C-alpha cells in the first residue's frame, strides 16, 4: 500500500523499495503475530524484527524503530518548522521573493530526500527550516491584509484540531485504512492536485481567480476538500508508522516517519489558512 504522503509513496514502508507491503490480510495469531502475511522484509537485516531466528544483539544501529522514536523526531522536525516560521514572520513578512525562494528550496530538498534510499536528517531538518521560513513569511503577509489579522493563528489551531481528531478516530478504529480507502484517497488527491494546477494556469494566463477554486462558495468547498484530504493523509501516515513499528523497521526509519507527518501537517495548515482567508473575505 502506498501512502498518500509523498515521502512514504516514494520510499519507506513499501515493497517497491525493498520494504514492507501492508496490503496483505492479517495472519491468524492475534496482534502479537507478524501483522501481515508474507515474510517480514526486516527479518534478515534487523535482529529485533519479527520472525528473526537469532537472539537479538542490541546496538544503536540495529535497535528497531519505536513510537517514542517517531514522536521525538517528529517533535524535532516540527520544532524546526516553528523556528523557521518565526524567522520568516519577524524578518521576511512582505518579502515575497525571499519567501517563494525558501519554498522552492524546501521543495528541492524534499524531492532529494524522497529519492534517497535512507533518510538523511540534515536534509529533513533543512527542509523543515526552509518550509518554516516560507510559511512564516507568507502567513505574516496574509496576517497584515485587511480583515485577515489572526487568521494564521486560527489556521494553527485548526491544524492541531484536525490532527487530534484524526488520531482519535484512527486509534478508536472509526477510520480504518484499507486498500479501498487508500485507492479512494489517492484518486481524490490526484484529482485535487490536477484541478489546482489547471486553476493556477488559468490564473497565470487569464488573470483573476482562474476557475474560481480559491474564492466564493466554490473556493470554500475546494478548501474543505483540501483539509479533509489532509486529514485522510494523516490516517494513512498513522497506519504506515504503526505497521513499521510492528514489523521492527530500523530505528533510522523514524526520521522518514517524521518527515512524512511534517509534510502532511504543512499541507493541512496551508489549506486551512486559505480556507479561513476565503471565509474572512
Unreliable sequence segments = 6-39, 44-58
What's the end-to-end separation, in Å?
40 Å
Helical segment count: 8
Indicate the proportion of strand residues: under 5%
Globular, elongated, flat, extended or rod-shaped: what is the shape? Answer: globular
Q: How would you portray this structure in words?
A:
- This protein is mainly alpha-helical and 281 residues long.
- 65% of the residues lie in helices and 0% in strands.
- The chain has eight helices and no strands.
- The termini are far apart.
- The model is unreliable at 6-39 and 44-58 (pLDDT under 50).
Short description:
The protein is mainly alpha-helical. The protein has 8 helices and no strands. The longest helix has 32 residues, at 216-247.
Secondary structure: elements and pairs:
Elements: H1 6-10, H2 67-91, H3 96-115, H4 121-143, H5 151-171, H6 179-206, H7 216-247, H8 253-280
Helix pairs in contact: 2-4, 2-8, 3-4, 4-8, 5-7, 5-8, 6-7, 7-8
Q: What distinguishing features does this structure have?
A:
mainly alpha; 65% helix; 281 residues
Amino acid at each position: 500500500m502506498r501512502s498518500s504522503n509523498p515521502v512514504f509513496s516514494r520510499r519507506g514502508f513499501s515493497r517497491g523499495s525493498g520494504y514492507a507491503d501492508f496490503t496483505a490480510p492479517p495472519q491468524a495469531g492475534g496482534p502479537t503475530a507478524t501483522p501481515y502475511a508474507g515474510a517480514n522484509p526486516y527479518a534478515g537485516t534487523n535482529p529485533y524484527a519479527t520472525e528473526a531466528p537469532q537472539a537479538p544483539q542490541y546496538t544503536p544501529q540495529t535497535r528497531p524503530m519505536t513510537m517514542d522514536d517517531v514522536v521525538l523526531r517528529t517533535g524535532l522536525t516540527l520544532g524546526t518548522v516553528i523556528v523557521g516560521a518565526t524567522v520568516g514572520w519577524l524578518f521576511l513578512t512582505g518579502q515575497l521573493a525571499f519567501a517563494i525562494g525558501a519554498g522552492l528550496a524546501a521543495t528541492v530538498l524534499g524531492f532529494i530526500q524522497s529519492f534517497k534510499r535512507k533518510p538523511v536528517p540534515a536534509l529533513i531538518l533543512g527542509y523543515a527550516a526552509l518550509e518554516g521560513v516560507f510559511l512564516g513569511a507568507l502567513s505574516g503577509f496574509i496576517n497584515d491584509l485587511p480583515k485577515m489579522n489572526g487568521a494564521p493563528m486560527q489556521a494553527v489551531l485548526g491544524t492541531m484540531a484536525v490532527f487530534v481528531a484524526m488520531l482519535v478516530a484512527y486509534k478508536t478504529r472509526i477510520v480504518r485504512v484499507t486498500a479501498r480507502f487508500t485507492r479512494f484517497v489517492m484518486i481524490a488527491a490526484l484529482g485535487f492536485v490536477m484541478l489546482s494546477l489547471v486553476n493556477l494556469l488559468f490564473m497565470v494566463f487569464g488573470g483573476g481567480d482562474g476557475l474560481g477554486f480559491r474564492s466564493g462558495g466554490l473556493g470554500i468547498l475546494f478548501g474543505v476538500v483540501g483539509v479533509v484530504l489532509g486529514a485522510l493523509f494523516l490516517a494513512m501516515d498513522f497506519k504506515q508508522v504503526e505497521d513499521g513499528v510492528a514489523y521492527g523497521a530500523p530505528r533510522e526509519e523514524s526520521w522518514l516517519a517524521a518527515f512524512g507527518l511534517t509534510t502532511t501537517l504543512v499541507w493541512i495548515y496551508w489549506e486551512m489558512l486559505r480556507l479561513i482567508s476565503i471565509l474572512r473575505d
